[in-house]
Design a protein that fits this description.
Elements (H helix, E strand, L loop, with lengths): L1 H6 L6 H30 L3 H8 L3 H15 L1
Helix pairs in contact: 2-3, 2-4, 3-4
């Protein structure tokens, strides 16, 4: 068994690295979502202003704004 564990390393496993990359990407989306949410709620930014400040698309900002409207109800 030890020989196999020396051969297979998580760091070299493409599925492990792919999952790690996916986790980073999801974390970046969550961070952008939180930033846009704060810009809308705390500062009253328009969709265009929030998109420019957070460096995301206007569609992304509109999705966040729709989610906030759902939470409010």
């Amino acid at each position: 068994m030890e020989a196999v564990s020396k051969f297979f390393k998580e760091e070299r496993d493409f599925l492990y690295r792919r999952g790690e990359a996916r986790g980073k990407a999801e974390g970046e989306v969550k961070k952008s979502y939180d930033v846009v949410e704060n810009l809308i709620v705390d500062f009253g930014f328009t969709d265009e202003q929030a998109a420019k400040a957070a460096e995301v698309s206007i569609d992304f900002v509109q999705k966040v704004r729709a989610d906030l409207a759902k939470k409010k109800q």
